Amino acid sequence: MKNNIKNIIAICLLFLVFFNIYIFVSSIKIGASLNKAEKEIKKLELENKELEARSFEIDSLQYASSLAPQLQFTKESQALYIKEPNVALKP
After folding, report:
1. Does residue 10 belong to any structural domain of this protein?
2. Which of 52, 56, 34 is nearest to 44 (CA)?
3. pTM value?
4. How many domains does the chain have?
5. Does the residue 46 lie in any domain?
6. Residue 88 lies in a domain
7. Which structural domain, as residue segments, surrounds residue 50?
8. 63 contacts: CB under 8 Å, gap ≥ 6
9. pLDDT one digit per residue (tens) for the chain, 91 residues
């Protein structure tokens, strides 16, 4: 009877040791994938900042004015205002 209990305790301890090793290896793998994901996040944040800066550059008036000759825009003409109100009236 004592041998059976010792064998059961030895098997349980052996099982716990292997289970502990499995958990340790799994946590190492998860840590490596987490580290890779964090690097990817940093890379995407940097790319997002660059694209945001490019977007602001494209939306700027300087960019529009530099493209104006290529798009054949004309300069704004001066508005002509009629100062005498009776010019446009029919008699």
Report:
1. yes
2. 52
3. 0.53
4. 1
5. yes
6. no
7. 2-71
8. 57
9. 778 899 999 999 999 999 999 999 999 999 999 999 999 999 999 999 999 988 888 777 777 777 777 777 777 777 766 666 655 555 5
